[in-house]
């Protein structure tokens, strides 16, 4: 039997390739250090978790220096990137010592950086932290949030999200964007509990 098919015998490369078939959005998680310096890192592993109470989650590696700062001060801001922010994403996914150099931002209500041009931001405090293998699973309590004005406009010029698929950046094709008929809105998506739910 293929080792990738055996329980507990998952090949790391196969794991990455298979999970790469799941297209995700891209975010930058930010906070500030004790001296006020901005800190951030690119993060795909972000998701909405609960409406009541309002919770989100993200999964930093256990070696993440940015996470250690978030754990210390107990707050973070999720910046949802637009499709034209590939360079910003690449910068925050690198080992560049000053990732905010040349990146305009302003503080959120909790003081974490909101990156200009992002589609939305979600300002949070850390609620709980759970073990997730080589990552932590961090639940964040949403304190405030907002979408960019341009993201709320319903026309062809609206900014679209930056996506990551099979190790590459991609984006939504305008002529292939259609409503999901089985979900009316985010509230229904998060709260539906039926026999066929996959949440």
Characterise this structure:
With 199 residues, the chain is α+β, with helices and mostly antiparallel strands. It is 15% helix and 35% strand. It is built from 4 helices and 12 strands, in the order H-E-E-E-E-E-H-E-H-E-E-E-E-E-E-H. It has helices spanning 12-19, 65-73, 86-92, 186-191, and strands spanning 24-25, 27-32, 38-43, 46-50, 55-58, 75-80, 105-107, 113-115, 120-132, 135-147, 162-165, 168-171. The strands form 3 sheets. It has a 7-stranded antiparallel β-sheet with strand order 3-2-6-9-10-5-4. A hairpin with a 2-residue loop joins strand 9 (120-132) and strand 10. The protein is globular, with a radius of gyration of 18 Å. The model is unreliable at 193-199 (pLDDT under 50).
Element layout with pairings:
Elements: H1 12-19, E1 24-25, E2 27-32, E3 38-43, E4 46-50, E5 55-58, H2 65-73, E6 75-80, H3 86-92, E7 105-107, E8 113-115, E9 120-132, E10 135-147, E11 162-165, E12 168-171, H4 186-191
Antiparallel strand pairs: 1-11, 2-3, 2-6, 4-5, 5-10, 6-9, 7-8, 9-10, 11-12
């Amino acid at each position: 039997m293929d080792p990738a098919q055996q329980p507990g015998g998952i090949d790391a490369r196969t794991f990455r390739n298979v999970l790469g078939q799941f297209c995700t959005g891209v975010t930058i998680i930010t906070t500030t250090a004790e001296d006020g310096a901005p800190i951030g890192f690119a993060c795909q592993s972000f998701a909405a978790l609960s409406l009541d109470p309002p919770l989100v989650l993200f999964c930093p590696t256990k070696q993440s220096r940015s996470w250690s700062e978030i754990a210390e001060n107990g707050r973070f801001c999720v910046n949802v990137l637009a499709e034209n922010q590939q360079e910003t994403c690449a910068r925050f996914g690198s080992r560049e010592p000053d990732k905010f150099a040349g990146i305009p931002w302003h503080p959120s209500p909790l003081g974490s950086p909101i990156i200009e041009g992002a589609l939305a931001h979600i300002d949070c405090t850390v609620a709980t932290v759970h073990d997730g293998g080589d990552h932590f699973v961090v639940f964040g309590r949403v304190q405030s949030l907002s979408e960019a004005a341009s993201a709320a406009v319903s026309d062809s010029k609206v900014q679209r999200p930056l996506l990551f698929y099979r190790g590459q950046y991609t984006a939504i094709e305008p002529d292939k964007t259609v409503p999901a008929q089985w979900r009316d809105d985010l509230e229904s998506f998060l709260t539906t509990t039926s026999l066929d739910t996959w949440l």
